[in-house]
């Protein structure tokens, strides 16, 4: 693993910790960006589906967010995630 790659991975982990601990609430579009970049960065393409109509609608938005970033590399998704954290979570 290159030094640049391990630095990116470390920055991503730190950004994830900051995002996980924040009590800030974000608009749905920002949350979807966090969600999609995280899922792409971690290569987790699963989307948990619930049975209620509201949950299916949320699932559709999540799938759309994932679809929009489908061409993004894992490293680019990590960078985008880090940028979001730095933009919205300043604590």
From TrEMBL:
The lineage of its organism: Bacteria, Pseudomonadati, Bacteroidota, Flavobacteriia, Flavobacteriales. This is ACB domain-containing protein. It comes from Mesonia mobilis. Residues 8-91 form the ACB domain. InterPro entries: Acyl-CoA-binding_protein, Acyl-CoA-binding_sf, FERM/acyl-CoA-bd_prot_sf. It comes from the Bacteria.
């Amino acid at each position: 693993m290159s030094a640049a790659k391990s630095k990116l991975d470390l920055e991503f982990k730190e950004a994830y910790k900051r995002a996980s601990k924040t009590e800030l609430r974000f608009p749905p579009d920002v949350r979807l960006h966090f969600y999609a970049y995280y899922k792409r960065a971690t290569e987790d393409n699963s989307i948990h589906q619930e049975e209620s109509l509201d949950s299916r609608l949320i699932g559709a938005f999540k799938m759309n967010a994932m679809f929009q970033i489908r061409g993004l590399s894992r490293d680019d998704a990590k960078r985008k995630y880090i940028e979001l954290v730095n933009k919205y979570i300043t604590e």
